[in-house]
Give the backbone structure.
Amino acid sequence: MNLQEVYNLFDIEPIYAKGCKVYSVTGAEYLDFYGGHAVISIGHSHPHFVSEMKNQIDKMIFYSNSVKNHLQVNLAEDLGRLSKCEDYELFLCNSGAEAVENALKIASFKTKRTKVLAIKSSFHGRTSAAVNVTDNEKIKAPINTRFETNFIKMNDIDAMKEALGTHTYAAVIIESIQGIGGLDQASDEFLQAIESYCNKANTTFIADEIQSGFYRSGDFFAFQKSGVTPDVITIAKGMGNGFPIGGVMTKSGFIDTWPGMLGTTFGGNHLACTACNSVLHVIESEDIMTNVKSVGQYLKKGLSAIDGIVEVKGRGLMLGAKFNFPIKDFRTYLVYNHKLFTGSSKDPNLLRILPPLNVTKYDVDDFLNRLRQGMEAFNVVPHDFETQF
Ligand SMILES: Cc1ncc(COP(=O)(O)O)c(C=O)c1O
């Protein structure tokens, strides 16, 4: 049997990883400023993470959600405390899309409505409802488009008010910093207006923190900068540092739950909880927040100083460098010739930068050197912005 060809693959096979470095089967060392798509939070193979996972494997990997699991309880307590969201309840699942799927279900159960308001260039996953609130028609199968979704521009308060004024929307879903969309940020005013109009219209305010959560933006959740409290928060990616786990946090009292309302076989299994508990432990003991803020600033400053980068977008360690040409070939060139992994986005000119959150200033210097050398060799001419394209 062959694999379905649904991914564009680099001709590289990583077999070992440590910190922000990835090593291929040929022995080549790569600098990972992509974090396996914003997944690696505390660094590849962090020693505490590895030893906790090994211990848990020795004890037990899985039992179903029909029995008590103190690892889930510990996870909810630590996540609530560290994120300052103690007044939420947690449902555990296995991926980002599954978190969004369940968040939309909660919104629809609560409001008895089906319409969703989303943001242009949004990405919320590829499963049935999640892909329907994603702004990319190409990846929607006919079966996905069974409820109405409308897309408004980021920060268009009037369009949001007009839509919610109809009192017909189950939910507004928003990434406070867009990931795949290209790092556009919601303004404080926009998020505050969404919170207030959702309250007025009995609409659920869903914050998708799957990519921006767990301090990637500098705050535990990106929406926290704007002082809002969404009804529902979706989480995944950095939560497990590479081990699959996702979750939905719902404000206590937002909805009356009943057994069977949500469920999953694998969600919250022992090994997945151990992964997240280890991440939370390291986030606290190594003060990841301070590192993201200071190294993020340092990286942003370094990028802004490079001639040929026309804009630096994002915050924390969720950044993008904008060029005045499509970066597809340049990104590939950086991988093969400068052993540097970075990301792309819907914006063809934007190189996405998503390193592990415990990256150092030394690693950033290394990154900036590789990038500068790559730009020089790739003939990215700084001043008149002409390129080899
Ligand atoms: C903001 C956001 N939401 C949802 C998802 C979907 O997550 P997953 O790929 O784990 O299903 C992603 C994935 O990139 C994402 O960036």
Summary: Residues 383-389 have pLDDT under 50 and may be disordered. Residues 95-97, 100, 123-125, 175, 179-180, 208, 210-211, 236 surround pyridoxal-5'-phosphate (CB under 6 Å). The radius of gyration is 21 Å.
